[in-house]
Amino acid sequence: MRPTILLPASIFWACVYAAPSTQSHHVLHEKRAVEPHALGWFQDRRLDARQLLPMRFGLRQQNMHRLEELLLEVSDPLSPKYNQHYTPAQIIDTFAPSDESIIAVTQWLVDSGISSDRLHLDGNKGWIHFDATAGEVEDILKTEYYIYVHSSRGEQYGCHNYSLPAHIRDHVDLIKPTVHFNPHPSLPTSLQRRAGKNLGAPSIHGGPKKATDNVPITPTLSNCDQFITPQCLRSLYSIYYKPLSAKENSFGVVAFTPQSYVPSDLDLFFKNFPSSQVGARPKTVLIDGAVVKSSPQSFALNGESDLDLEYAMSLTYPQTVTLLQTGDEVEGAGFDNWLDAVDGSFCKYKGGDDPSQDGMYPDTLPGGYKGKASCGIVAPPHVVSVSYIQDEYTVTPAFANRQCYEYGKLGMMGTTVFHSSGDNGVAGNGGVCLNSKHQPASGGTVFNPGFPVSCPYVTAVGATQINPGKTVNDPEGACEQVIYSGGGFSNIFPMPSFQESVVKTFLKSHPPPYTKGQFNNSGNARGFPDISANGANFVVAVDGKFERVYGTSASAPVVASIFTLLNDARLAVKKGPLGFVNPLIYSPMTRLLFNDITSGGNQGCGTPGFTATTGWDPVTGMGTPNFVKLLAYVLTLA
Ligand SMILES: *[C@@H]1O[C@H](CO)[C@@H](O)[C@H](O)[C@H]1NC(C)=O
Ligand SMILES: *[C@@H]1O[C@H](CO)[C@@H](O)[C@H](O)[C@H]1NC(C)=O
C-alpha cells in the first residue's frame, strides 16, 4: 500500500485556498549529461502521449549545504565532536525536506491538474510520486519524451531536458524518469568478456583484468613483484594483528549480479592462504532478488567476486564478511540499489530509483524479481568495499549529488565506503576520453574521471605495484602493469576543504603539463584518489585455477580490510568505528602513517597522465597505509 500524501491538514488547506501563488516562468532544470547516440542509442519516435509514467519528484533536502560541515564535525580527528556519529533517525530529522517544499511542489502539481489524491509522499518525505501520462508530464515539465532504440539493448524512453517554474526549482533536486539516460555504452568486445550483461554490469564495472601469460604460480615472499598474496600484503603494509571483535565488527563487500563468487574457488584459495580458513563463506545478503551462482562460469563473471572475497576474508579472518549481492539476473542494479538496502532513508517504494540508472523493483521484465525493492534490510556495515565504477559524464550533476549526499550520510552514521578509482589512468572505462563538450569521443583528449570516486564523501582507492625486481621492503610505484590507477579531477564536485591544502600544493609545485580544457586545473575541483594499495599480480583462485589479476578492484578490498582491522581494535576498547576517513587520511597528523608513493604515472587519453610525486597526487592519493602505525594512532582518538 502506498500512503497518500500526508500533510498537516491546516497548512495544506490554507495553502491550496490561499491567494494564488506567484506563478513564474519555466526555467531549464536539468538536461542530459550525455547524448544517447554517443552510447549507441538512436532517437526513434515520440513516446505515445497516453503512456503511463511512474513519476518521482526528489524534493530538495534540508541542510544539504551543511552536510560537509556536519560530516567533518564527526570525522575530523581534531574536532571536539569526533566520532559522535548520528543515528538513522537523527539523519532523517536533519535532512528531510521542509514542509514548505512539500507544500510548494504539491500545490504547483495540483494547480497543474494532478489532483491531490493522485500524489503520494514516501515515508521519509524525500520523494513525491504519482503516475501520469506522458502527455501530462510533457505539459507540466515543458518537455518531449522520445523512444530510443539500441541494436542489442532494446528500447527505452527519456527526454533531452525539462523545465520547472522558477519558484519551484529551489524545492526540487531532480525528477525521474527524465534525462538520466541509460549510461551503458556498448563496449569493445575485449572488455565485454570482463563484464556482465545487465544494468550495473558493463559500463559501471571496472575490472579486474588478468594477465595473458601462463607463468606457473609459485608465490613466496621473495617474488611479490610477480605474485601478490595475502602474505605479501601483510608484509608491505605491516598488517600484523589478530582480530578481537569480529562479532561486533562488520565488513561489507558489494557485488552486482551477474557477478558471482564460486565457493570452491574460496576453498582452493584458502588451502594455500591459510588452510585454517577452508570452508569459510561470506554472509550473503540478497538485495532486490539477487542470486549467487555457485558453479564456475567465466573469469568475466567470477573474477571480481572471487578476488574481493578471497582477499577481504583472508586479510580479516576470523571476521565474517557480508556479501551485499545486488540486483536480479534480468535487470541488474546500480549503486542506488545497495544504498537503498543499507539506508532506509534513501529508499522509497516506487521511489527515487531511476529506471535507466538503477534496477527497478519489483522487476516487470519476464523472469525478473517480483518482490518488493529491498529497503533498509540490513544495517550499514562499518566498512564497505565497492570495486565498480562508472564514468562521471554519464550522470547528471543532480543525480550525482543526490547519490553523493547519501555517502555523506553513511559517513555521518559511522560507515566508511571505499571505491576502486578505475583502471584506465586519466581515461574512463574502456579507455574512453572526452571531447571539449564532455561527450565520449574516439581520439578525445579530455580526461574522463569516474563516479562515484569523484564524490568527496567516498574514499577513492588507487593502485600501486611492487616495481619489477624489487621486494616488499622497497618503495612501491604507481601501478603500470596491465592497468593504470584511475585518478584526476571531478567535473561535477568542488574540492572539499579537507584536501584543499595538499591538492593545491600538488597543482602549484608540480603543475601538470595539460590545459584547463583537458582537466579542471583550477584548484577548485575534487581530486582523487585519496589513498592506494597494491593492484598488480594478485594471485586469485578463479574457476578452479589460479590467475594473476590486476586492478584497483584488488586495491579497494585491501584498504577496506586494513580499516576493518583498525575498527576491530577500536571496538575492542569500546570506541566507535572510524566512519568517514578522508579527513583522517588528509590530516597533517597522519602524514607519516602512510607510505608516500613518488614514482610512476597514470597514462591515458594519449598522454602520460599525471605523475606520482611527494605528497598527494592524482595517481596514488596520499599513498598506501601502514597498518601498525595507523593502529597506534587511531587508538589515541576519541
Ligand atoms: C531541450 O530539448 C528540446 C527537444 O526536446 C530541444 O529542442 C531544445 O533545444 C533543448 N533545450 C536545451 C536548452 O537544451
Ligand atoms: C572547475 O571546478 C570548479 C568546482 O567544481 C567549478 O566551479 C569550475 O567551473 C570548474 N571549471 C571549469 C573550467 O570547468
TrEMBL record:
<keyword id="KW-0378">Hydrolase</keyword>
<keyword id="KW-0843">Virulence</keyword>
<dbReference type="InterPro" id="IPR050819">
    <property type="entry name" value="Tripeptidyl-peptidase_I"/>
</dbReference>
<dbReference type="Pfam" id="PF09286">
    <property type="entry name" value="Pro-kuma_activ"/>
</dbReference>
<protein>
    <recommendedName>
        <fullName>tripeptidyl-peptidase II</fullName>
        <ecNumber>3.4.14.10</ecNumber>
    </recommendedName>
</protein>
<comment type="function">
    <text>Secreted tripeptidyl-peptidase which degrades proteins at acidic pHs and is involved in virulence.</text>
</comment>
<keyword id="KW-0865">Zymogen</keyword>
<feature type="binding site">
    <location>
        <position position="617"/>
    </location>
    <ligand>
        <name>Ca(2+)</name>
    </ligand>
</feature>
<feature type="domain" description="Peptidase S53">
    <location>
        <begin position="227"/>
        <end position="637"/>
    </location>
</feature>
<dbReference type="GO" id="GO:0005576">
    <property type="term" value="C:extracellular region"/>
</dbReference>
<keyword id="KW-0106">Calcium</keyword>
<feature type="binding site">
    <location>
        <position position="596"/>
    </location>
    <ligand>
        <name>Ca(2+)</name>
    </ligand>
</feature>
<feature type="binding site">
    <location>
        <position position="615"/>
    </location>
    <ligand>
        <name>Ca(2+)</name>
    </ligand>
</feature>
<feature type="binding site">
    <location>
        <position position="597"/>
    </location>
    <ligand>
        <name>Ca(2+)</name>
    </ligand>
</feature>
<keyword id="KW-0720">Serine protease</keyword>
<dbReference type="InterPro" id="IPR036852">
    <property type="entry name" value="Peptidase_S8/S53_dom_sf"/>
</dbReference>
<feature type="active site" description="Charge relay system">
    <location>
        <position position="304"/>
    </location>
</feature>
<dbReference type="GO" id="GO:0004252">
    <property type="term" value="F:serine-type endopeptidase activity"/>
</dbReference>
<dbReference type="GO" id="GO:0006508">
    <property type="term" value="P:proteolysis"/>
</dbReference>
<dbReference type="InterPro" id="IPR030400">
    <property type="entry name" value="Sedolisin_dom"/>
</dbReference>
<keyword id="KW-0732">Signal</keyword>
<keyword id="KW-0479">Metal-binding</keyword>
<feature type="active site" description="Charge relay system">
    <location>
        <position position="308"/>
    </location>
</feature>
<dbReference type="Pfam" id="PF00082">
    <property type="entry name" value="Peptidase_S8"/>
</dbReference>
<dbReference type="GO" id="GO:0046872">
    <property type="term" value="F:metal ion binding"/>
</dbReference>
<dbReference type="InterPro" id="IPR000209">
    <property type="entry name" value="Peptidase_S8/S53_dom"/>
</dbReference>
<feature type="signal peptide">
    <location>
        <begin position="1"/>
        <end position="18"/>
    </location>
</feature>
<keyword id="KW-0325">Glycoprotein</keyword>
<keyword id="KW-0964">Secreted</keyword>
<dbReference type="InterPro" id="IPR015366">
    <property type="entry name" value="S53_propep"/>
</dbReference>
<keyword id="KW-0645">Protease</keyword>
<dbReference type="GO" id="GO:0008240">
    <property type="term" value="F:tripeptidyl-peptidase activity"/>
</dbReference>
<feature type="active site" description="Charge relay system">
    <location>
        <position position="553"/>
    </location>
</feature>
